[in-house]
Amino acid sequence: MSTNKQIPTVPLNKFIKHSLEILKNPLPFHHRNFEEQGDIFRLKIGFSNSVVFCRDADFAVYVLQKNQKNYKKSKIQTEDLVKYVGEGLLTSEGEKWKKQRKMMQPAFHKKQLQNLLSGMQDTIVSEYKNIQTNTSIDVFPILNDLAFQTVVKSLFTKAAKAKDMERLQFITEANQQMLVKELRQPYLGWWFNASGTLSKHLDLSNEARVILKGIVEERKSSNNRYDDLLDMLLETKYDDGKGMSEEQLIDEILIIFTAGHETTSNALTFTFQLLAKHPEWQDEIYKEWLALGGDDADLMTRVSTSKVCQQVLEESMRLYPPAYFIDRVNIEADSFNGIAFESGCNLLFSVYEIHRHPKLWERPNVFMPERFVEGSRPFSSQYFPFGAGPRKCIGNNFAMFEMIIAVTELVSKFKMQADFNEIDITPLITLKPKNAFLRFENRDSNL
């Protein structure tokens, strides 16, 4: 195939001109470029640096699945994120990643996760006690705490001290904010170093590691068994029969905290905002909850058969994918559909744009859970809420189970009304909600 198509280029001066807008929310800027330049364009971000932005779903499948061996994660994850969370499953590459993935995969199988469901439910029900009825409340802090506490309990059961977990939550969110500044203001790198700002955040990362090391050492020295994720991770072995080093274990736990709670709290908040705007789907979920046995239903049966709830969640993550971009760098020069890509090309796939592409989706900006009536499989070539290919998120089942329990528990107890006009977003490392104000009222048994 000939490779003579040129990638349209957005010049550096345009990037600089819109730098303040990009710092606040880069998605409108990127959307305008996609509309003007096409599904693939190059953005100059320095005199010699550029990023190729893509919303071509076929190219995404090619990079993430068909020719994935020629593509690695970019410096954003393998260097920039590593300095905060270590070299765990999310940030490692090559043989190390393969080794870690093979060892950790069994801990996230559905049968293993079944042991965690009752703990998830208890945590979720406890967090919902913080919901005040008949008043306007920002639901995101509640759901952020819910997702964080669910990860804490799933990892550590009762081993973690509340003050340590509060500190760990603060560190996780503070370092994410810092990383966003580094990525969107690369021209201030010298200042972040000279002012001590970067050093301060690296000290926070070390503090998080000390907290986790104490929890791990306490578990190792005890004779207690909880069948939680920490037990599973401590018991997993490599092919040579050895377990993870303590440093590697802490890296993986930091990744689970960072990736596990953040994306789930975002997805749940967007889902509840959409449900508040579409109360008919609240009723459909409630009807399904009743049909499955309500509070008396077996939890594994509920999370496996709540099809309406799953449709709503799938559609919510289509419109507002928490992991809204996927980055890759090609190892060797490559080509796709007549376009040549030099080796070392920085590729950024906009999941947000792919999920709203008018050529891929009917009424792409409209909330239509019915499109997923047969599940997400029919859209596997254009729908990537958990990524795709060998590096698809290892925690996708954990996240879906948690979110189904969270949605059904809430809808079974409350009705929601929107106290906002439009759903607003704050794109950081993940796609975060903004001003998610809802009103709750206790649900009567009658619809």
Describe this structure in words.
The chain is of the alpha+beta class and 447 residues long. It has one domain (9-442): Orthogonal Bundle (Cytochrome p450). Helix content is 53%, strand content 12%. It has 19 helices and 13 strands. It has helices spanning 12-17, 19-24, 27-37, 57-66, 75-85, 94-104, 110-113, 117-128, 139-156, 162-184, 189-194, 197-221, 229-235, 246-277, 279-291, 299-305, 307-319, 351-354, 396-413, and strands at residues 9-10, 40-44, 50-54, 71-72, 136-138, 325-330, 334-336, 339-341, 346-350, 414-418, 424-427, 431-434, 437-442. The strands form four sheets. The chain has a six-stranded mixed sheet, with helices on both faces. A three-stranded antiparallel sheet has the order 5-13-10. Strands 7-8 form a two-stranded antiparallel sheet. A hairpin with a 2-residue loop joins strand 7 (334-336) and strand 8. Helix 8 crosses helix 19 (396-413). The longest helix has 32 residues, at 246-277. The model has no long low-confidence stretch (mean pLDDT 92).
What's a quick, concise take on this entry?
The protein is 53% helix and 12% strand. It has helices at residues 12-17, 19-24, 27-37, 57-66, 75-85, 94-104, 110-113, 117-128, 139-156, 162-184, 189-194, 197-221, 229-235, 246-277, 279-291, 299-305, 307-319, 351-354, 396-413, and strands spanning 9-10, 40-44, 50-54, 71-72, 136-138, 325-330, 334-336, 339-341, 346-350, 414-418, 424-427, 431-434, 437-442. The strands form 4 sheets. Strands 1-2-3-9-6-4 form a 6-stranded mixed β-sheet, sandwiched between helices. Strands 5-13-10 form a 3-stranded antiparallel β-sheet.
